[in-house]
Amino acid sequence: MQTITHIESNHFRAVVESYAYGKISAAGRIGFLSLIARPGTMRSLLANLYSRTLTTLTRSDQPQHPVLLSLPDHDSGWSFRTFHKPMPSGLLSTLLLPIQATHYGLSMNDPALLIDRHRPESPATPPDQFFSILNKLTPYPILQEWTPFIWQWGLKDGWITPLIADPYPTYVIAPRCKELQQHIAKGIIEQILPVPLTGTDRIRTTASHSRRTRKHLPCT
Description:
The chain is α+β, with helices and mostly antiparallel strands. Helices cover 28% and strands 30% of the residues. It contains 5 helices and 11 strands.
């Protein structure tokens, strides 16, 4: 049986296509919402959400456990935008999304929202966009070969926070840059992190290999 999720605020109700919520700031829970409702109902719901009116999210498979949601406070740093798409039925599909979930909304030392639409095969595997997001949030370059290790560090250290989400896994990414830099330095020293060879190193390695090969070639 298909699970249907809806939100309700002041008797206005909408169907929820996808969502994420959790402790993304000190005073907010909503990560993002994708909703379907009549245009008038949608306007009223959005007005309630933007005024920080508490909204109830209920799943049909857990009707006895509604969840109270609200947008983060204005001074939390999270800034939301709405995107509308009219449907042939006359209903309105609306996406409520923080700019921190968009490429243009990322800035150094600020948190980001990562929505994983591709679902990696293993939870230990970082989502595809993690690499580009991390390089936007840190003041130093990150190599793509390091991202599986950094992903695990972030989950363990708590600066990658999984949200309650359906159907797309969603995470708040808020790296502590100094600590991460220390982790990276330690990982390089302990040879946990791979360090790609530079062009000069490749030339030297190739030349050395060539000399060893010539040394062991049989005389003709």
